[in-house]
Write a structure and sequence with these properties.
single chain; two-stranded antiparallel ribbon; 12 helices; 42% helix; globular
Length: 280
Amino acid sequence: MTRQQLVQQIKEKQSFLCVGLDTDLKKIPQHLLKEEDAIFSFNKSIIDATAPYCVAYKPNLAFYEAFGVKGLISFEKTINYLKQHYPTHFIIADAKRGDIGNTSAMYARTFFEEYDVDSLTVAPYMGEDSVTPFLGYEGKWGILLALTSNKGSHDFQLSPLSSSSGAAEGALFEKVLRVSQQWGSEENMMYVVGATQGRMFEDVRKIVPNHFLLVPGVGAQGGSLQEVCRYGMTRDCGLLVNSSRGIIYASQGEDFADVAAQKARELQQQMAEELMRFEV
């Protein structure tokens, strides 16, 4: 999916919601465990219920790989279902890959050729040759981890850097943002910035004013949608805000899909207000 197509979907739906498919068999409604493929059955119901209110889905690979081959089959069925029934939705494989060049090339081949998803989250720690293999596919995106929403993000990402002369160079995440712009563009590279980082979106936007940001942490992790928009929204939105637990596990009963739809609709309505406020 191109940037233009993604922006068009955001404007048409008045939404920049991404629904995270972090499907945990210990948390899904128990009646689904009778199904032959409980993970896919859950995902299918969630997708059908929330598709009108979101523009993207983000299955987290850890929740599928934990079940070996069976889990990967569920993942593939989920991707195929989305592509067949909801082809305009942006698909993010949340796998956080990133390794030496030839290994990254194989990861890119797996997700962009075999699974044919739109984007993949990438850990940039190993540098340019670990990232660029994900940026060579037309219409595909690498989403680099920059400033994440977890508590441990402060351990390294906010570490201050200085040059050999002792001059301050900002925090590590800022260097990731600056240097990585030499590898890709606003058309094929996004960044993960956690909603819990608040006003630090201002610092992010000083370096990457127009790149799309994938923003986890709204809802269950306590991030504020309004704060994210105030400091992170651009003239064509520039945001994909993810919610996982707050939507997909809002109910443990047989009404789980209806309640998920309700939660997604509530977020979409808030997003529509923000888009109107920023005249996107």
